[in-house]
Amino acid sequence: MAKKVLHRTETAKLADFMCFSIYSANLTYSRVYKPVLDALGLTYPQYITIIALWEEDRQTVKSLSDRLFLEPSTMTPMLKRLEAMGYVTRTRDTKDERNVRISLTAAGRSLREKGFGFGEVTVKASGLTSEEFPVLQKAIAKLRDNLVKASKGEL
Question: Which terms does the UniProt entry file under GO BP (predicted)?
Fold first, then answer.
């Protein structure tokens, strides 16, 4: 089957752009979980930081930045706020003082447990079945990973 070639008068519409679908889905997704985050008193980046530390405590600022796709210059002020809130501690690495290690406090661990309902809210709001949701999540993660590689000239 031959590919259809778009002519200037048949340009793609906004709804045809995958980047717009992802962008607008992200904005809408944010509206769904905003009440949960408000109840926890956290922003989304703060919340995912808590989750990342819950999975692996004592990460460096650099490793957290890489894992969360955030710049270290963004992470540092956010971590200072989380520390002021009593959820994390920041300590110099004893082996390499250039590195700062981030750890959850007891309050930070407790906060993470309070956010467990978040997943149920977003799964329900998605309208996807329990089988469809993880399939879509994995496809989006694969897309992200491929885009990261492409942005580094690796694809």
Answer: response to stress
- Give the Å distances, CA to CA, from 119 to 40, 77, 113: 14, 27, 12
Computed over every residue of the chain, the mean pLDDT equals 89
Tokens of residue 142, six digits: 């694969």
Distance CA 28, CA 34 (A): 10
Question: Could you tell me if 154 and 145 are in contact, meaning their C-beta atoms sit under 8 angstroms apart?
Answer: no
pLDDT at residue 97 greater than cutoff 80:
yes
| Residue ranges of domains in the chain | 39-114
Q: What pTM value is reported for the model? A: 0.83
State the pLDDT at residue 1. 57
Please name the fold of domain 39-114: Arc Repressor Mutant, subunit A (1.10.10)
